Amino acid sequence: MRHPMEIEAARLEAVVCNSEPWEARTGLAPNEALEFRTLNARCVEFIAQPGKIRELRDCVQGRLMEYLKKQRGFAGAVILSSLKEPRLILVMSLWKGEKDAGNRWETSAAVLRLIAPMIDVCTRVHTYEAALPNLADSRAPAIAAPIC
């Protein structure tokens, strides 16, 4: 059975890392054959209220990330905004363990106080196992600057 494929373009708004190296927090051995480290990702999509897009992005990149950095098992986050639908903001938080990724941070009272005035709705929440390349052992291109 063939399913139509929809391609969605997104702009990378920010990459946020916790201050400790991932290896020190995860305790997970890399997949030696593939040279990947495994973390858990919790992807949360928010729809900003009209006229509140920039305010929501700033809040997510600032106060929300400061909140998440204080949570047990937080390893970092990637923040994406849709080019097709500018009101759509996706926060992919990375966590040490599956239990940490399932902490439902997006429904906590502290987070709701921060973002509720700027969002129409939280549309989707998914949790994934994320295989991240072990870049510490690979040679980065000369023009690439470390993000974290």
CATH class: Alpha Beta
Globally, the shape reads globular
**Rg from alpha-carbon coordinates:** 16 Å
Estimate percent helicity.
Answer: 10-25%
Distance between the termini: 42 Å
Strands side by side in the biggest sheet: 1-3-4-2-5
* CATH topology heading: Alpha-Beta Plaits
Low-confidence stretches: 21-29, 137-148
Q: Provide the number of structural domains.
A: 1
Structural class: alpha+beta
Topology:
Layout lengths: L9 E8 L4 H5 L9 E13 L4 H17 L4 E9 L5 E8 L2 H4 L7 H7 L3 E15 L15
Antiparallel strand pairs: 1-3, 2-4, 2-5, 3-4
Helix pairs in contact: 2-4
Plain-language structure description:
The chain is 22% helix and 36% strand. It is globular, with a radius of gyration of 16 Å. The N and C termini lie far apart (42 Å). The chain has 148 residues and is an alpha+beta fold. It has a single domain, classed as Alpha-Beta Plaits. Helix 2 runs antiparallel to helix 4.
Structure in a nutshell:
With 148 residues, the protein is of the alpha+beta class. It has one domain (10-133): Alpha-Beta Plaits.
Keywords for this entry:
about 150 residues; Alpha-Beta Plaits; globular; 4 helices; alpha+beta
